[in-house]
Structures are given as C-alpha cells and as structure tokens.
Amino acid sequence: MLRLLHSIFGTHGEGPYPNSLVKAAIERAVDCTDPWLRGVSGYRKKLRPAVICSIDFVVSFVNRLPPSLPLSLSGYGDDRLMKKFFISREELRTILAGDRSLADFVDHAGEGCRSVYALLGMEKQERRGFGAALSGDIVLHDVPQVTVSFEGHRFLDPASDEGENRRQLMRRAFDHLLSLALRRLTSLKSERTDLERWRALLQAKSSLFERVGMGFGECPGDSVACEEQLGQIEAQLQALGGDDRILEVYLEAVSDVLGHPEEYLLGRRETIMVDSMGIRHEEPGEDVAELPLLMVYTAAGRSMVVLPVVLSCAEVRDLKR
Fold first, then answer.
1. How far apart (Å, rounded) are the C-alpha atoms in residues 265 and 303?
2. pLDDT tens for residues 125-158?
C-alpha cells in the first residue's frame, strides 16, 4: 500500500492519476476509517471524487513549500534565521542529538548517506510582559512587550533526498485527513449509540406502563411524556441515518471530509518583526529583523511553524557518539 501511495505522490503534479493508484488510495481511506463501508453499493465510485480532491490538495500543499535550507552547528552563528528559531548553539546541539526521527534515520541510512532532508516543525509561543525600551535617548520602563520564542522542535519524515521527504510529507498530510474522517465517524457512532441506549430505556419504561399501569408515583402524563421522548429520539436517529442506510451516512461523512481538505488543513505565510532579544515589534528598526514564517493550521485548532531543512548526516551521526 505504501508503495502504491508513493507512486501517487511521486507524480509531483495534480491529476490525472492512474486508476489503479486512485483505487489503492480509496481502499486505504476505507481501511483507515471503517472497512464496513465496503458494504455500500458503488462505494469506490462515490468516494473517488473526494479522494482525488484530497490527493490534489496535499500534492499542491507540499509542493508550495520553499526549498530546504541548510541547518548545521557550524553555520549557526552566521545564520540570522536559525538564530531566531534556536536560542543558542547549545540548544540546537541538544535538539539535534535528542531527535528520535533523525537518530533512526542515520542508523539505517549507512555511512554512505551525506545529507538528510526533513521538515522542521516548531510551536510559536508569544508571552506578554513588561520591559524597558528606548524612546529617543530616554529609557522607558514597564513597557508592554511580546516575546516570541519557538519550542517543541521536531524533524518530520527525514529522507536522503528532498523529493522523498516531500512524498512522505504528502502521505502524512493525506493520513491526517483520514484521521479527521475517522474522528467524524467516531463522533457519529458515539452519538448514535447514546441515542439507541436512551431509546431502549424509554421503550422498557413504556412497556412497563402498558403492562402494570400507573404505580404510586406516576401519572398519565408520564406515559405521554415517555412516548414524546421516544418520538424525538426516533427522529434524531433517522436524521443520523436509519438502520437501512447508516453505512451510506458514514460514507458521506468520509467523503465530506476528504472532499473539503482546505477546511481541515491550512498553510499560510506570515511575517513578524523581532529584535535580537526575541521581542516583537510593529515597525522595522535598527535591531529589528523581518522573520518569515510558514504556519500550518489544523482543524483541531493547533498550529505549527514549518521549515524544510537539510542537514549533514555526518554531523547528526557525530552528535550521537
């Protein structure tokens, strides 16, 4: 399956894709969400447009990434951009030495590996506080400030060449969409299960009313209310999909997610201005530099700064010794 998806994402262009490969992507979508969806007549035909839409999206999304930038300990002092993302050479050393993905890659790459390409992911943190600032020759105190820092550094999908790294990122983005489709199904199934349990309780209560009549605490209105609640639950279950078409409803939910990937994964370029201390500014200045960022936002409300980088295998390997 991964080999087939590798072929899809190896095209580095948007459709048309070979039918056999689109079929493989459809089967992966079903396997990763609900294999019972194969019980829907024509499920491949129904899923095909949405799956192709997602493939087109992730290919375009990854292909818009900028070229990989060199990242190394030796070049840290001269790289103004990297000095914003890592507060010191020692922090960079610690992160490189402790990253499990890089370590696993160089362990299996062999001595012939010269470069490792990966996507550097970071969390941007902004903290508000007060500090000193200059206004002409006057030092102002207790000035509101926003300090920008980057944390949670991790290297995604390391590979020996840039093209392979990009293909792996495409698969990652596609699988991310599948995970969201699965989450949608899980929510629908949970809601349906809760309604069915409540319906069973009300049906048992209604049956009891019919068999033994009113007890000490009940009144005729209780039976009427019970029937009304049952009617409401039946209506909700029908809205979620009756027993005769529940799998079609689930298939439509998967198709909806895969058919609108732009609603679940957003990439946006941003530029902020920070000084050498990481303090954010609204206008450029002598010690203020523009910091271009590529932000990725997910449907879960998470965001991450991403940056394609290329490192020396030898340097990463030496850090482990």
1. 10
2. 988 877 666 555 666 666 678 889 999 999 999 9
Is 195 inside any structural domain?
yes
- Helix, strand, coil % in the chain, rounded to nearest 5: 55, 25, 20
- Is 114 among the domain residues? no
The whole-angstrom separation of Cα 220 and Cα 227 is: 11
State how far the Cα of 319 lies from the Cα of 321, in Å rounded to an integer: 6
Phi, psi of 100 (to 5 degrees): -70, -35
Sequential DSSP letters for 278-315: -BEESS-BTTEEEEEEEEEEETTS-EEEEEEEEEEHHH
- In-domain check, residue 84: no
Query: What pLDDT digit, counting tens, does each position of 221-275 carry?
Result: 566 676 677 677 777 766 666 566 788 888 999 999 999 999 999 999 999 998 8
CA 206 to chain centre: 46
**6 contact partners, CB below 8 Å, separation of at least 6:** 167, 171
pLDDT for position 307: 95
For 217, the domain range is 186-261
In a domain, 251, yes or no: yes
Beta bridge partners of 297: 266, 303
- Count of domains forming the chain: 1
